[in-house]
TrEMBL record:
Source organism: Brevibacterium antiquum
Name of this protein: NADP-dependent 3-hydroxy acid dehydrogenase YdfG
Keyword Oxidoreductase tagged: yes
UniProt record similarity statement: Belongs to the short-chain dehydrogenases/reductases (SDR) family.
InterPro entries: NAD(P)-bd_dom_sf, Sc_DH/Rdtase_CS, SDR_fam
Amino acid sequence: MSTSENNATITTDSVKSPVADKRVIVTGAAGGIGAALATELIARGARVVLADVSPAVTDTAASLDSPAESGSSAEDAASAHAWVGDVSSVAGIDDLIAFADDRLGGVDMYFANAGIIGPAGLGDSDGDWDAIIDVNLRAHIRAAQALIPRWQKSGSGYFVATASAAGLLTQIGSAAYSVTKHASVGFAEWLSLTYRDDGIRASVIAPMGVDTDLLRDSGADGPAQSAVTEAGTVLTPEAVATVALDAVEAEQFLILPHPEVLDMYRMKGSDYDRWLKGMSRYQNRLNEANRLNEETTHAGND
């Protein structure tokens, strides 16, 4: 081999993505951020199990394999596999990981991305809170309980949680969403510092507005949605996935697709009482704007 050929080989190898050849699970992957994360992971050379309670995840996964891969007789040669089930339950997590073991031969990275918006206000019952706590928090805990021991034995592993800027700031209009996203950030933080010496890494993604069904489910034109859409640019899931994977490759813990969230977080920490009073005034303004909008709409329908 000539010197120039050898240098070319070294250059090519040096730009190989750190997630290349990784065996990855992404939950909430039928659409939105989850599907975008899976797409970006596969583009960087990873093999992925896309998990979702929606059967639509099957079509999403099928669209991510090239014709050659999809037509292969060896199913484990595919870069995308679909699993349909409930990732918030212990049985679901166990089944998902067993599926990944079978299809991928193991799990190197876990993206706990599934999430729901939950009830407005304080909610009406324990059931309202149980559902969102299971999906937005306990699903993360249950996955970590299953994966951390095996990652400790192998000396490596990566856990990535999709939280929200609401987990650093708050979510106007929804106590349950705000509380569970704060808990998601706190849990990922604890994982990061506790298992670092075991070779295990953790990151948390905390975006503001992203153009997904979750944003639309927060209530069209309501205060909760307005609080998000007014605060900054509503990003595409693809933009969030690119930022997130770049940060994961750099082993960055706090991933902020909206960089301005860091300034908001610092402002909150610098004078908590002032921040709370300001947020209360902001909430009142949004509520008044929503009331006027409803009155205008009602008058127009008379």
